[in-house]
Amino acid sequence: MCGGYSDGLCEVCFRSLPRTEQAELRGNSMEQALIGDVYDSVAARKAMHLVRGAAFLFYEKDHPVQQAIHKMKYADQPMIGYQFGRMAALEMQYADFFDGIDIIVPVPLHPIRLRERGYNQSEYISRGISEVTGIPIDTTHVTRERNTPKQALQRGDERKQNVNNAFAVNHPEQFYHKHILVVDDLVTTGETMRSCLKAMKRFRGAKFSVFALCKAR
């Protein structure tokens, strides 16, 4: 692959991206990561108010996608997220993945982390999705209250404890009975997303779909 993520993908790179093809597949690895290892997955989905979940790409170490994600998050190239968000939306909208969604909520960064980085990469991914689908973005009703250590540095149960009660919501009545798409850049064990969804249960009557740019295998 050419690695030209900052200026767009060449045709070879575009064709060789490790797509998950999860948009139409219920019970996929993304949804299983959110639901967890449970006996009754249907009941677990209902308890989470989860409509659907999917990742666009598989994340693999030593693959060019890893390089792209690293550039997006740590090398001041947030437009990579925007470009991938557009690409994902263009491909996944034909599977009706975005049907019925009222609002897009990117997983927030803590204000300290946001100041350090200068941007929220999940917001840029959301902007790309929004441009294609026309679904508006909200970045004000869900906040990150604790500046947690990076999940990548945690192991096992440490990941769950690290993000427990990390998120909060405000003015929940404005999102009552909405269908919300929650967007993140990378899902590994799903703990961060589960913590975010747990906080968003205060949006009474709301239901959720989840999109990640990448899902670790």
Compose a concise summary of this entry.
This protein is an alpha/beta fold.
Task: Indicate the multimeric state.
Answer: single chain
Radius of gyration: 16 Å
Estimate what percentage of residues fall within beta strands.
15-25%
What structural category characterises the helix and strand content? alpha/beta
* Main sheet: strands, sense, barrel: 4 strands, parallel
pLDDT averaged residue by residue: 89
- Distance separating the two termini: 20 Å
**Unreliable stretches:** none
- Order the strands across the largest sheet as they lie in space: 1-6-5-2
**Secondary-structure element series:** HHHEHHEHHEHEEHE
What share of the residues lie within helices?
25-40%
Q: What form results from the Cα inertia axes?
A: globular
Q: What does this molecule look like?
A:
This protein has 217 residues and is α/β, with parallel strands linked by helices. Helix content is 38%, strand content 18%. It is built from nine helices and six strands. The strands form two sheets. Strands 1-6-5-2 form a four-stranded parallel beta sheet, with helices on both faces. The chain is globular, with a radius of gyration of 16 Å.
